[in-house]
Amino acid sequence: MKYQDEEIVRRKVAEGKHRLLIGGMWKEMGALQHDFLIARGLKPHHRVIDIGCGSLRAGVPLARYLDPGCYYGIDISPELLEAGLKREIAPCGLSGKLPPENLHATGEFDLSPFGVQFDYGIAQSVFTHMPIHRLTDCLNAIAQYVVTGGQIYVTWFERPEGHAPDGPVAHEPGGIETWPDRDPYDNYPSALEAATPTGWTLDIIGEWGHPRDQRMALFVRD
Fold this sequence. Notes:
single chain; alpha/beta; Rossmann fold; 7-stranded mixed β-sheet; two-stranded antiparallel ribbon
């Protein structure tokens, strides 16, 4: 993954490409996540964890909507988090709503520094870049920090049931080709079910308007 290459990330951020590094479509994808979560019942007082938040593409509209201090984010890259705070949050006048301590750089889905429990979470275009066992790792790691009934939304590329288990799957819109064994990854719906650990209930939502055909799954904390 390019996101795990610290030198690439550092160089791109220094070049001012923190938006492009996480996939571009800055306003479109930020608004899509914001509008989707509100349609699913998100209120300003809810605490939200943005898993793989990058340079805060969703963080800007969500921090604006939520009560002060209710948006949190984790990402593997401290450089992207810093770029998001300095180049996106501050110019929008949102520093009072998103304190730096609400962001944490981690590659292991560690929410312990925050000391709170979350009502909602979203992982947009995170597990499309990882083998599916990392989804299981994530849900196990965050479980104790999610309230009973808490909703964690995860995007994924679908390999339709009945499709051959090898070779690429072409996705439209977006023109993305995905693979079962390398980045960008796809998965059968049954694989998501198998990856759901004890303590969680899976609801496959499917289409949600993503411009590159990523589908949505909901994991509810039992």
